[in-house]
Amino acid sequence: MTISKGERIPSTTFVKMTENGPEQVASDDFFAGRTVALFSVPGAFTPTCSARHLPGFVDKAEELKGKGVDEIACTAVNDAFVMGAWGKSASADGKVTMLADGNGDFAQAVGLTMDGSKFGMGTRGQRFSMIVKDGVVTELNVEAPGDFKVSSAEYLLDQI
């Protein structure tokens, strides 16, 4: 079942790349007591994700933070090494936290998976964005397959 506005983010674990290597991040801790703009992409280094989705959040990071967002995070069903490299290549350091959902546990827990098998990608997270306040989803924008409209940084900015 897909998560809805007003529901709490399920307890899962992400992994982020740090100077000391991969570090586990509990979702309960990550979202507690603050406002997070979270967006999901089907895969790091994929065309729309690299050309428009991540760069939009990097470019709009200050505007989002100016509207009360404490942290901006990107998640994808990729490993922490890939997410770390993608973040560096997109100049996301200090602007967007890259959270690996390597096994798809988070995507599955929020009910937002997609089948990318015909592209050799297996099960991935759908393209979406959300605002999470103290662990509760207050805005949720899920894209139709192949679209990039409602999950952009600009769209999310208009909702805050």
UniProtKB/TrEMBL annotation:
It catalyses: a hydroperoxide + 2 glutathione = an alcohol + glutathione disulfide + H2O. Signal peptide: none annotated. One of its GO terms (molecular function) is thioredoxin peroxidase activity. It comes from the Bacteria. One of its GO terms (cellular component) is cytoplasm. This is Glutathione-dependent peroxiredoxin. The keyword Cell membrane does not apply. Belongs to the peroxiredoxin family. Prx5 subfamily. Keywords: Antioxidant, Oxidoreductase, Peroxidase, Redox-active center. It comes from Sphingobium fuliginis (strain ATCC 27551). Pfam families: Redoxin (PF08534). GO terms for biological process: cell redox homeostasis; cellular response to oxidative stress; hydrogen peroxide catabolic process. The keyword Cell membrane does not apply. Its EC number is 1.11.1.27. Thiol-specific peroxidase that catalyzes the reduction of hydrogen peroxide and organic hydroperoxides to water and alcohols, respectively. Plays a role in cell protection against oxidative stress by detoxifying peroxides. The active site is at residue 49. Transmembrane segments: none annotated. InterPro entries: PRX5-like (IPR037944), Redoxin (IPR013740), Thioredoxin-like_sf (IPR036249), Thioredoxin_domain (IPR013766). Residues 3-160 form the Thioredoxin domain.
